[in-house]
Each structure stands twice: as C-alpha cells, then as structure tokens.
Amino acid sequence: MTDMNDNRLSSAKQLETLRKTILSKRDAEKPIITVCTGTACQAYGSLEIYRRFVEELERQGVEGSVLETKSTGCHGFCEQGPVVVIFPREICYVRVQLDDVPEIVSTTVAGGDVIERLVYRDPNTQEAIPKESDIPFYKRQMRLVFGNNRYIDPREIDDYIALGGYAALSKALLRMTPGEVLEEIKESNLRGRGGGGFPAGLKWETTRDASTGSKYVIVNCDEGDPGAYMDRSIMEGNPHAVLEGLVIGAYAIGSHDGFVYVRQEYPIAYENTMNAIDQARDYGLLGSDILGSGFDFEVVVHRGAGAFVSGESTALMSAIEGKVGEPRMKYIRTAVSGVKGMPTCLNNVETWANVPLIIERGAGWFKSIGTEGSKGTKIFSLVGKVNNTGLVEVPMGMTLRQLIYDIGGGIPQGKKFKAVQTGGPSGGVLPEQYLDTPIDFDELTGLGSMMGSGGMVVMDEDTCMVDTARYFVSFCCDESCGQCIPCREGLRTLRDILTDICEGKGKGGDIEAIEDIAEVMEDASLCALGGTAANPVLTTLKYFRDEYEAHIKENRCPAEACKALTSYYVDPAKCSACMICLRACPTEAIHGEKGIVHWIDQEKCIKCNTCYEVCPTRFSAVRRLSGEPLPPPPAPGTKVTREKKR
Amino acid sequence: MTITLQIDGKEVKAESGVTVLEAARQAGVHIPTLCEHDRLMPYGVCRICCVEVEKKGRKRIVVSCGYPVENGLVVTTRSPRIDRIRKVLIELVAPTAMADGLLAGEMKKIATEYGADIHRFESRFTGKPIRCILCGKCVRYCDEVVGKQAIGFVGRGVDRRAVFFPEQARACLTCEACFNLCPTGKIAADTDFVVFDGFSVDDYSSGEL
After folding, report:
1. What CATH number is given for A565-626 in this structure?
2. Residues forming beta bridges with residue B50, ordered by sequence position
3. Residue B136 has pLDDT above 60, yes or no
4. Nearest CA in chain A to B133
5. How far apart are the C-alpha atoms of B52 and B35, rounded to whole Å?
6. Would you kindly state where each structural domain of chain A is located, as residue ranges?
7. B155 Cβ under 8 Å from any chain A Cβ
8. Which of A332, A477, B9, B129 gives the lowest tally of CB atoms within 10 Å of its CB?
9. pTM score over 0.90
10. Among B78, B76, B77, B64, residue whose Cα is nearest residue B20
11. Is B154 helix (H, G, I), strand (E, B) or coil?
12. Which of B124, B139, B140, B153 to mutate to test the interface with A (most CBs of A within 10 A)?
C-alpha cells in the first residue's frame, strides 16, 4: 500500500527538520495562554473561557503580542478549575471566570502584571503563589508522563513534535533492533499501570515469542473505577504519547495491527485519538514504511459499550471481536492466544505512555526513579475528603502520607483522616497506621489493597467503613457480567448482608458469612473482577472489624453516617434558638422560634445532616446520636437557658 | 503426546491437550460439575469443578474443565479449601435455583456430599427465584450442537437471564434437545410453546423471566 503525500516523513532527519521548523516559527519570549479544557475544567465552562480569550485578544487589538492561545488537556489541579496558565512566565490563575478574561488580557498579557486576586493562595499561610511550579500541589509531583498535557493542544501533532515527540519512535525504528527495544523495556522493569502490575517487558516477550504469524497490540482505555480518570486525561490531553508508545511496542513485538479500546463514556478521548491517528498517518508516523524504516503498523479505534467488566483483558478482546464483552477462562494467556486466537499484548494507557520516555532516556534513568520493585512514576486520581482533589503524578516510593498531606493538602474542615481506598473496587481500604507505606505495587498488595489503575479515595472520620464496603460491592454487583456463580451470587449476597448491617438488621454470624463468601469469591471467580471484588470488604473487616461489630451488636454506627442507626438531636442546654438550623431544614422538621429552644420532629427528619453542618460551632447544639437512646424533646416553649456571651 | 501428571496422589497418563477434568475421569477420579457437558466447549462458570493444582511449588485454584493438563502437574481434587468452595457455591446459588424449597438432581447430590446448608442465605435473598443457575447448557447446546440460537442470555450481573427467543421457540417443540440438559428441570413445553417450567408465556414475553 502506498499513500504518498507531501507531509510524509521518511527519515529521522526529516522529523528533526520538521521539529526545527515548528520551533523556528515560535518566539520563545511571546506569551502563550493555555486554558485547561480537561473534563473537569470543561464542566466549569473552560471552553467558553478559551473562546473569550480568542475574542478578547482581538477586541483589545493585542492578538499580535501573543504567540498562541491553546485549549489543552487536563493540568491536574481539578479542585481549582478552570485553570489558566500563561507561559513562559508560568503565571497560574485558578477558578477563572468568564468576566476575568478581559482583565487577564489587558493586565497580564498586554501589561505583564500579575492579578493577585486570581492567583492560588496557600490555604494555610495565605501566601499568594503566582508561579505554577511553586504551588505545593505541583511542586512535590514528578510529572513525567502527565506534565506535557499543559503545553499541548491535543489536536495538534506539531505541539507534540515541538516537545521532542516521536523522537523515541525514530530512535527505536531506525537505530535499534526490535530485540534491543524489548531488552530496554525489560531492563527498565516497567510494570503494567492498569491494575496487576505485571512486568510489561515479559508480556511483550511472551507475545513476540508465541508465534511467527499475526499478532496484535492493544491500548486499554476502558478505565472505569469510580472517581478515577488518569487514563482519560492522558488519552484526551496527550494522545500522541500513547500512540508513540504503542508503535514502539508493536515494533519490538513484531505486530502490525493495533487497537485502541476507548470506553463509550469518553467522547473527547475518542475524538482526540481519532484525530491524532489521522495526523500521525499524514506524517507517515503510522501506516506503511514508518519514518522510512520499512516497518508497517496500522491502528483501529474500538469504542466500548459501557461495561466496567470490559476492561478485563479477555472481555475486552471478546468485545473487539464483536462479541459480548464477557471474560473467558485464560489458562492460556492472552499474550499467547488473544484476539481471534492470535498472540495479543494488551497494556493500559499509562503503561504505553511511559514507553517513549524509557526508549529516549534509557532504562537506567527510569530505574533511578522509584523503589526496588516499582520503578518510575504513577498517576493517581486523588479524590474524596482531601483539600486538593485532582490528578497527581508522583515517583513510586512516595508515602501515602506525603501524597495526601503534602500534595493533597490534608483533610478539609480540620476533620480527622480515617482511611484511604486505593485501587478502586478491586482495591482495599487502608487505615491511618499505614499512611507511611511507600507507594509500591508489592507493598500495597501485601496490605490487602492494590495499586490498581490509580484511584485514591480519601475518607475522613464521618465515613462509615461498612457503608464504604457496601458501596463498592453494590458497584460491582451492577458491573459484574453475571456469568460465574461466585461473583454473581456472592456479590448479590454480600450486598444484601452489608445493606442489612447498615440498616441495623445485622445479626450474629453475619461477619463469618461475609468472610466465607469473600474468600470463596477470591478463590473461585472466573476473572479478576470477581476475584478482587471482595477486597474492600475484606480490608474494612480486617482494619475496622469493630465498626462491623458496633453495627451488629450495638445498633451503632461509629461514624454516625448510617441513617437507620443515627438520630439528630438538638441539645436544649446548648441551643441558642438562633433559627439557623430551623430555616435550613429541607423538611421543616425543626420546631421552635426566636428565644425558644429548637427540637427535631424525628418523624419528619430525613437525616440529611444539614442542621448538623449549619449549627454555628460556637453553639454546637446539634448532636448526632447512634446506639444510645434519644432524649425526649424539651417541654413546649422552653426558653433558652444558655448564657449569652457578651 | 502423552504426559504424566498426578491426581490425588495417583500417577495418571493423559494426552496433552485434554483438560484436567477429562484426565481425572479417565483415571476414575470423580469431580462434580454443573455447567460442563461432553459435547460442549468448556465454559467454566459454575466453578464447582475447581481443583488445586501445584506447579513449580506454586499452588493455585483452577477449574478443571478448562485447565489443560501439563507434565508433572500435581492435582488435588478434594481438600478443605476445595470442599468449602463447593459448599459455599451451592449455598449461594440455592435461593435462586430452588423450586418449592428443594434442590433437584446433581445440585442436590453435591449439596448433600459437601454438607451445604441450602437455606443459609435464603432469608437474605432479595432477588427472584428463577430456578435457573445460568449454567448456559441450554444456550450453548442450542448454539454449538443444534446449530440454532433459539435461547440466549440477556441482562448483566444479578439481572442476567437465559431466555427463549419467541420467533424461534415454536420450532423447539420438535427438537427438545435442551430439555434434559437443564440441571434444575426448568425447561419444559407448555402445550404449543416452549417455556421455562413454572413461568407462563406472558411472563417471558413481558421480559419478567
């Protein structure tokens, strides 16, 4: 097949020449405005902000003073979105609103001055930090894979090439043999970022050696853990990095056909991948005779149909074959017999995106980062009860405490840390005593959790651990394919028992039943979804058994979170009858008036926690009671007894 | 090629390519199954036929109907761990599989053999007893042996069901090949139409099944 066009690059030199041409057109001194249009910032309206910048530059007649206005993929600091960064000075504006745009253009872009009001402020010191890399959230990270997102318009291949993109591909195809590429990846000890942490190089080698016929390589972008969006943000924000890694892998393995499996719920990732493939093909970086090397490689994008279980490798491969996305037995590895029975190498998005870095900078460099068994960095989506939610990339070996406190900024509202859930529904919950555990595949697995694909949900003292287990089990109940008995019936029964416990209907023998079911699921399930689905149950039981016992034996939820076991009560001795809770109550369950002690009608109360939250801390009159009898309400018309201060 | 493996302490010879289950049967070792059938491709969903295999000092649980024999493999078909799995699996699936509070056929045998309390999770069961364990024998037999697809799976997770496709199910009256395969005896003909026994034609055209 020949698809000759003017843009095709057919040597390393031509790629370098193109890079130099792109750079020569760019005045490094001129400002570049980058607007984060990752999924979270888009939800805050950042696309309109981007358009307003383009309009406003023209309206103020200063478009000539700006090199470019870019809409980029996710920068990671989702908590502070929409984020706008102005390079080269790296002036970072957070929570930018549409109306701020004219001022940013006139004051910062044209005038060169920083607008204090829009700058990130350290919540602890109140210090204004205008420069992006000085912000603690970014400062402690090591953004090797994810860092380029903020410089790149993901729809422009030239942006990627300007940063040195496809140089690793050029090096691999033109200066290395497939065997040397494979050895480099094996030597780097890159482990799969999708969940299990299997060494990528070994998987590649098995696929390469499985047969001399057709082989496939696959990018798994079917990320589906609740609250996790690492792969989405790479695929949306820097698709060429993934494609480059994929072609390098295909070369090492001897595959000429690849798939990118993108889940249905990621339309931007799909669009940007399709566009990236077209652009790469146009430059001759995909297709036949890539970069004049004689190596041919084609890639097809396959959209998933929205099943969590399709992220399991055999299910994903069935889906690619046009069958129902259900797992099958894999006693013969997919690396040997995968798509259409051919050897197939599947890695997730982040794993592939690491490949160009390793080829370019060498396995030795990669191995210098991380721990003994886990090399390089890992991207986490840090969510839940933590101040700085967002995507963070850190070197392996950083402790959970550093990640949650130094980067995440700790727990909001001065609450106490209770647990962190890593690895999504397959992972586990770790309590405070393990906060100094280094982030490492084997360390986390050893504690009953797992690295997983990088979901990290932080929980505070108000989170009930039984309810957390119930949540993850219910999630898997909906997402299991339902083929095998342990997963289907095990999850259903676990969900029903856990729901009963949360509703105060637990009974003796429940904990033993839960353990029985969970262990059988682990031993006997068909695929990894069922095999790991009980991890949240087993770890909460291991580290918070007392909470289960309190629910079952004392009808008490220690976190005062399970509604059926918790009542709200206004302490007459503390109530100042300020009317705040009374007005905030959505069901008008609170009675009283100015000067008359308030009380809650338990029949009407829906336990929404609003009164508890709004009661001024200087009174703290609203109490949550669990496992103890509710005192009777005050006599009607009881006057405030509490002595007013001042 | 003939290879040698060990099953429950016995040296067993088997042709490479056969499964552990087949090798065990040839050696006269009984392993219980629910979803396995000698004319169907291994499916591996009931998990009842699980065994422990040991290779290079590493033990793990596999289902014997799908695991290919290997030279030097050490197989254990009964152990406290295996027995517990079989017991709990029957206990878990019993509420959905029972008819009038009883289990039938092979399931009853396994329940007795492994001491399963078939009522253990009954009070917790919030689903609908469908008298079906979703072993897929009917679905796969119709597809793989008869060469029709008159039965198929719909739904996912706990909502997964096997259903007849009305357009084709009338022709099933002259076939009936799947009737005797059903481990719970659910499939039956209702006058002029094939249905799942105990469920009316209306039930299943309304999607209730």
Report:
1. 3.30.70.20
2. B63
3. yes
4. A485
5. 19
6. 31-134, 157-367, 377-460, 465-554, 565-626
7. yes
8. B9
9. yes
10. B64
11. strand
12. B124
User: Exposed, middle or buried: residue B147 (CB in 10 Å: 0-12, 13-18, 19+)?
Assistant: exposed
User: How far is residue A489's CA from residue B98's CA, in Å, rounded to a whole number?
Assistant: 14
Residue pLDDT, tens place only, A626-644 = 999 999 888 888 888 755 5
Query: Which residues of chain A have a CB within 8 Å of the CB of B62?
Result: 331
Task: Determine contact: B39 vs chain A, CB below 8 A.
Answer: no
Residue bearing tokens 């040991």: B54
* Cα angle value A587/A568/A627 (rounded, 5°): 140
For residues A245 and B146, what is the distance between their CA atoms, to the nearest angstrom? Answer: 46
- Reduced to 3 states (helix: H, G, I; strand: E, B; else coil), residue A346 is strand
pLDDT tens for each residue of A202-233: 999 999 999 888 999 999 999 988 888 999 99
Q: Over 90: is that where the pLDDT of A262 sits?
A: yes
Model pLDDT, residue A646: 44
| C-alpha angle B129-B135-B138 in degrees, rounded to nearest 5 | 100
**How do residues A405-426 score in pLDDT, each as one tens digit?**
999 999 998 899 999 999 888 8
Contact flag B85-A520 (C-beta cutoff 8 Å):
yes
Number of cross-chain residue pairs from A and B with Cβ atoms under 8 Å apart: 99
The runs of H, that is alpha helices, within A459-559 are: 465-479, 485-502, 510-524, 528-532, 535-543, 545-554
- DSSP symbol at A598: E
Find which of A330, A516, A523 to mutate to test the B interface (most B CBs within 10 Å of its CB).
A523
Q: Which helix (H) or strand (E) holds A14?
A: helix A12-24
Name which of B61, B70, B158 to mutate to probe chain A: the one with the most chain A Cβ atoms within 10 A of its Cβ.
Answer: B158
Which chain A residues have any C-beta within 8 angstroms of a chain B C-beta? Answer: 307, 324, 328-329, 331-332, 477-486, 488-493, 496-497, 500, 513, 516-517, 519-520, 523-526
How high is the pLDDT of residue A287? 96
User: Which residue intervals of chain B bear CATH 3.10.20.740?
Assistant: 2-78
Cross-chain residue pair B160–A483, CB shorter than 8 Å: yes
Taking each helix axis as running N to C, give the angle between helix A239-253 and helix A230-237, from 0 to 180 degrees, rounded to the nearest 10.
100
Residues pairing with B153 in the sheet: B162
Residue A530 with chain B: CB contacts under 8 Å:
none
Confirm if B7 and B21 have CB atoms less than 8 A apart. Answer: no
According to the model, what pLDDT value does residue B201 have?
Answer: 56
Contact A76, A146 (CB under 8 A): yes
**B92–A523 CB contact, under 8 Å:** no
Return the CATH fold of B2-78. Answer: Ubiquitin-like (UB roll) (3.10.20)
**Cβ contacts of B155 on chain A, cutoff 8 Å:** 482
- For residues A313 and A327, give the distance between their C-alpha atoms in angstroms, rounded to a whole number: 7
CATH code that applies to domain A465-554 = 1.20.1440.230
- Give yes or no for a contact between A487 and A524, defined as CB atoms under 8 angstroms apart: no
The 10 Å CB-count burial string (b at 16+, else e) for B159-183 is ebbbbbeeebbeebeeeeebbebbb
Tell me which residue of B157, B161, B168, B170 sits closest to B203, measured CA to CA. Answer: B161
Rounded-to-integer distance, Cα A201 and Cα A199, Å? 6
- Residues A338-361 have a mean pLDDT of 96
Residue of A nearest to B61 (CA): A523
May I ask the CATH class of domain A157-367?
alpha beta
Tally of CB atoms within 10 A around B42: 21
Nearest CA in chain B to A501: B124
CATH for the stretch A31-134? 3.40.30.10
Q: Hey, what long-range contacts does A433-439 have (CB within 8 A, 24 or more apart)?
A: A434/A400, A435/A399, A435/A400, A435/A401, A435/A404, A436/A399, A436/A400, A436/A401, A437/A399, A437/A400, A438/A371, A438/A396, A438/A397, A438/A398, A438/A399, A439/A374, A439/A378, A439/A394, A439/A396, A439/A397, A439/A398, A439/A399, A439/A400, A439/A403
